[in-house]
């Protein structure tokens, strides 16, 4: 019993120490970057918001948790009523990939901003930390709560009321972690769809549509008429359709759209040739091939999964 009590104390102490470090990192970020940039005038408030998000609200939440950790040993009380406020992390997590791209773009295009960042990153109080290392800390924090609470829960008596309360808290945080991960995944998927759209010619129908998700891309050989010869084409699989096209020129990164196949009336059929399969649709049949059966099999499974 004493061993578990000591282990629980260690987990609690780790939660407290890591929260102190996290709060300090947020303070460094705001004190050395956000506030001076807002006063500086060489970067717009919109650009600052794109890079740093609502980092000040996130700091408020962290400080509340830290204050409670310093005043109480009841881990459930520490998080009581605060988990709903973790929703402030959602837009930050969703925009994190694009914020990193914006940061790189600003540093390459705005010499004053780049010089400012270099000077700030060399300050002794940053202890060698670079701006990207500070910006990623909110993304890492809530999953860390989940890991520490899971360890704490395992050390709690299964029959106790505390165990039930910790399990309930852990479930709330796990739900929030899944929501954050889904937000990030949705944003990355939407960004990918937009990138595909930009890489195709203007004759391509609009690929950006509510509920549509990108699934897979790659090259396959398609049987082309009138000579029934296989030619390499680029394919993009979405949840509701298959798009294919050919490169505009050998060195071009652009593609001309050759076809859009809605999947709602399609089925995948194997062929006598193991390196060929048929995509049978309402008004046409596509014969698709690959030199590698494993690659072909992946495409068959992916298309079949999208149809299902």
From TrEMBL:
Domain PH: 213-308
Domain DH intervals: 7-183
GO terms under cellular component: cytoplasm
Provenance organism: Soboliphyme baturini
Chain segments annotated as coiled-coil in the UniProt record: 163-190
Protein's name in the database: DH domain-containing protein
One annotated GO molecular function: guanyl-nucleotide exchange factor activity
UniProt key word Calcium: no
Pfam family, one: PH
SMART domains: PH (SM00233), RhoGEF (SM00325)
Domain of life: Eukaryota
The entry's keywords: Coiled coil
Classification via InterPro entries: DBL_dom_sf, DH_dom, FYVE_RhoGEF_PH, PH-like_dom_sf, PH_domain
């Amino acid at each position: 019993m004493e061993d578990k009590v000591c282990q629980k104390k260690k987990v609690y102490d780790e939660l407290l120490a890591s929260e102190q470090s996290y709060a300090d990192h947020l303070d460094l970020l705001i004190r050395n970057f956000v506030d001076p940039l807002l006063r500086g005038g060489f970067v717009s408030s919109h650009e600052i918001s794109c890079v740093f998000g609502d980092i000040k609200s996130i700091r408020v939440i962290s400080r509340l948790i830290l204050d409670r950790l310093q005043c109480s040993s009841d881990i459930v009380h520490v998080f009581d009523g605060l988990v709903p406020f973790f929703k402030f992390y959602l837009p930050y997590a969703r925009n994190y990939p694009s914020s990193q791209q914006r940061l790189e773009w600003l540093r390459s295009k705005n010499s004053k901003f780049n010089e400012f960042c270099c000077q700030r990153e060399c300050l002794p109080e940053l202890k060698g930390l670079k701006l990207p290392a500070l910006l990623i800390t909110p993304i890492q924090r809530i999953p860390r709560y989940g890991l520490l609470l899971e360890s704490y829960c395992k050390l709690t008596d299964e029959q106790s009321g505390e165990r039930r309360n910790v399990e309930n808290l852990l479930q709330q945080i796990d739900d929030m972690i899944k929501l954050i991960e889904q937000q990030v995944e949705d944003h990355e998927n939407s960004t990918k769809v937009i990138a595909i759209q930009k890489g195709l010619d203007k004759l391509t129908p609009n690929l950006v549509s509510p509920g549509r998700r990108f699934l897979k891309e790659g090259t396959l050989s398609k049987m082309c008429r009138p000579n029934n010869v296989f030619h390499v084409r680029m394919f993009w699989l979405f949840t509701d359709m298959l798009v294919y096209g050919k490169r505009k020129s050998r060195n071009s990164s652009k593609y001309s759209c050759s076809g859009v196949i809605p999947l709602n009336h399609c089925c995948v059929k194997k062929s006598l040739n193991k390196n060929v399969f048929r995509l049978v649709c309402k008004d046409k049949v596509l014969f698709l091939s690959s030199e590698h059966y494993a690659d072909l099999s992946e495409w068959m499974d992916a298309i079949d999964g999208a149809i299902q």
